[in-house]
């Protein structure tokens, strides 16, 4: 695949699966930030807050998830005098909490009005100063009647000095306690938070422990290669066949199959990100080659050809064509049948018989597929020539991939094995036709839970929809 294309891999169902401030600033002006609906969310100080629960409990669910919704109920709200923290909820393996605090506005126009401040806190108990995490969230006070919940949204880069973000005057106390609003029931309010976070930085994270997978180290510009290697690794029958290639007598520094076996083995059984320097060295690459983005489709072709050659006359001979090759048939179909050609015709006027020339026949030309392979690689042409710019430009239109795909109707005749495919992986390129970055989204078990391999030590799961 060229680095202006996206690619996707679909796996036949019949193939085996292993597979977002204020630091409580003391000035009256700053303390007034947050009253209006269009105000900017600010940071809240949590140094002296009391926890809602002495023993914080993690919310249920996958701790490495990218987003979730959690709720927190504050009891005896009418008597709330001090700041209070909710139990933690894990997102991206970081603890997220709701910080609630009663506030007093010092603005004379508001006549010393009492308000409720609400903030979202991230990683508040950590002593580390190197971490950061960008996130968006919606903070909502649930209503107990037909009224709409009161919601405000935030977006923030959380880090050690600004580990909480929200509204110091989320809602006025009078409005909060107004029975017509429906916020309070039995002297309780319920706060709901939906948080969506990007992958954190500067956080010690055990990818193997949390996801069961490890990533590949980027040598400089080898994201395209890493994306391809992860895709091939999760092609289970190919991985098994790779292990069976005879490499005992190979030169360790020059053997591509042996180096590939090492990478696959470490991906499967290692606990840390896997290096690929020995593999690229076996390609004959120098260091500068790893800082150049090569054509991923060409790399895929060359790598598979190398493996196919190594598999000849072994127990895994023919694995590559069996997994990746299909057959198609070109055809020309005449509108006129032979019967029409020989039928009797009245030769009159301009249609008089000319024995020396039969004329041209209309025809259809196309392709039908005779058979499809168990592993189907589809490559999208993601660039086109722009005559105004006199250059090739990348096509960035949205292209959706179905989770399941049936290709029976495109076959010349129905095969014994239905051409039903499950979406297995999508290679995505961000950038332009001169370069960019590759990531791959892999569906290892065919269950819709996708392994997002985009950094050496980061593996996350999300729902695969489109690219």
From TrEMBL:
Taxonomy, superkingdom: Eukaryota
Residues covered by the USP domain: 214-467
CDD domains found in the cross-reference section: MATH_HAUSP
EC numbers, comma separated: 3.4.19.12
This protein's record includes keyword Protease: yes
SMART domains in the record: MATH (SM00061)
Lineage: Eukaryota, Metazoa, Spiralia, Lophotrochozoa, Mollusca
Protein name (database record): Ubiquitin carboxyl-terminal hydrolase
Transmembrane spans: none
Annotated segments matching region Disordered: 1-64
Keyword Acetylation: no
GO molecular function: cysteine-type deubiquitinase activity
PROSITE patterns (UniProt xref): MATH, USP_1, USP_2, USP_3
